[in-house]
Specification:
There is one protein chain. By secondary structure, the chain is mainly alpha-helical. It contains 21 helices and no strands. It has helices at 3-10, 14-29, 38-48, 62-79, 84-107, 111-143, 145-148, 152-162, 169-174, 177-194, 204-221, 224-236, 244-261, 263-274, 287-290, 295-305, 310-315, 321-327, 337-363, 369-388, 400-424. The chain is globular.
Length: 427
């Protein structure tokens, strides 16, 4: 049956597929179109397959992950401040469906085939994204005279702000620049482990191809955390291992040549990326957080204004409450997943997330070498992303970011089962 790998291949197309389904079906069947999202269909098919002989096991880290989502729903019902529908969608698409999908993959006899199809779908998603990048840049030239007049290197640093322009093709394909770059980095770190799930290492040519495609989009997004983590992911994942010395020498030569040609432009680019694109000249790499009116000040004001009752303290007040109270719509968040989680799901919900991550960290101790390193690097990178922003259910209606986390939580269990199988195989 080839249907299951095909659905897995579609999962990375979560955002454009959800937008296309919304356009085609929402007016006819309402939000029921969400049942046709690839991640939902794949999770349902995998559960249906459990009547066959399952293999492997389910990661215990998935249990607290789901509990965190449930806490958000209970908190919304308890607080009755916002419609519980937002919290239900957040729980279903950010926690329940991803956990169900990851558990189904772990137990499926076709686990390697499904994972391989999912990675191939990701490669296709990135490849097609290059065409939307070109078209999106052309749109910016056509519609935004201010962007046209910037210096070429400054256009690169400011490109991610163009994604907020209505109708930008690249934004339709990938969404928010920070959230998309999160997924690029995590999948770079996870792919070498996932592709070796059957014991055979992936070919170096395929690794280079995945690394090349991912690097193009991380550079295009120009997200500071993504740029900082990109070399870590490429080196730790061994994407260009045979070429490392030559690649470093070539990169050094290019940097020296560009610096000699236009040092002033490079300084301006560096300030625009690592200072404040709107006010280059003050603050440093953390200026978004430390400047007057920045994230730290915003979070402290939020903390000072937060006076929860016991129910809200324990279970939160539901997803979307912060956005509605601050911006009049539920989608905006605090740019800090941990704060978003305690507001939405309370102390219990946030604690459940930490328990899930701790369980995966401890589970990685059963792995060896590069697999253990990459799983733990993925967990650390995910926590760094959470301080910047991370949404398991982007816009409360998509699941790809949640699926990536759920698979990350399941990787120690999947790899440990594979290692045991190899040990028990007859020689």
């Amino acid at each position: 049956m080839r249907l299951l790998p095909f659905i897995a291949w579609l999962v990375p197309f979560d955002l454009p597929v959800s937008q296309a389904l919304h356009w085609a079906l929402a007016g006819t069947i309402g939000n029921w179109y969400l049942a046709f999202l690839p991640s939902v269909v794949l999770a349902a098919c995998l559960v249906h397959q459990l009547n066959q002989a399952p293999v492997g096991g389910v990661s215990p880290a998935l249990i607290p992950w789901v509990i965190s989502g449930v806490c958000g729903v209970y908190g919304a019902v308890l607080a009755a401040k916002v419609s519980a529908a937002w919290s239900v969608q957040d729980c279903v698409f950010g926690y329940f469906v991803p956990a169900l999908l990851a558990a189904g993959v772990s137990l499926s006899p076709k686990r390697h085939e499904i994972i391989s199809a999912l990675i191939r779908g990701w490669e296709a998603y990135l490849l097609l994204g290059i065409f939307t990048l070109g078209y999106g840049i052309w749109q910016s030239y056509s519609m935004d005279s201010g962007w046209q007049n910037r210096a070429p290197l400054m256009k690169w640093t400011m490109w991610r702000y163009e994604l907020s322009n209505s109708g930008n093709a690249y934004a339709f394909w990938f969404g928010n620049a920070n959230k998309a770059s999160n997924l690029f980095i995590l999948l770079l770190l996870m792919a070498p482990v996932l592709l070796s799930i059957d014991g055979a290492a992936p070919s170096q040519s395929r690794m280079r191809w995945i690394g090349f495609l991912s690097a193009i989009h991380i550079l295009a997004m120009c997200s500071r955390l993504g740029l900082l983590l990109l070399p870590v992911a490429l080196v730790a994942g061994g994407y260009f291992r045979p070429l490392t010395r030559w690649a470093l020498a070539a990169a050094a030569a290019i940097v020296v040549a560009i610096a000699a040609a236009n040092l002033t432009a490079l300084v301006e680019v560096g300030r625009a990326i690592f200072v404040n694109p709107e006010e280059a000249g003050g603050g440093g790499v953390l200026s978004t957080y430390t400047k007057e009116g920045g994230r730290f000040e915003e979070w402290m004001e939020l903390w000072s204004a937060w006076h929860p009752d016991l129910g809200e303290l324990l279970f939160g007040s539901g997803a979307g409450n912060y956005g509605l109270a601050t911006f009049g719509r539920p989608e905006p968040e605090t740019h800090n997943y941990f704060i978003d989680r305690i507001l939405a799901a309370g102390t219990f919900g946030l604690l459940a997330v930490f328990v899930a991550l701790l369980a995966a960290w401890i589970g990685a101790a059963r792995l060896t070498g590069q697999s253990r390193l990459l799983v733990r690097l993925s967990i650390v990178s995910f926590m760094l992303m959470c301080v910047r922003e991370y949404s398991p259910a982007y816009l409360f209606r998509t699941s790809l970011a949640g699926v990536v986390v759920a698979i990350l939580l399941s990787m120690p269990t999947m790899m440990a089962v594979r290692c045991n199988a190899l040990k028990e195989a007859p020689r």
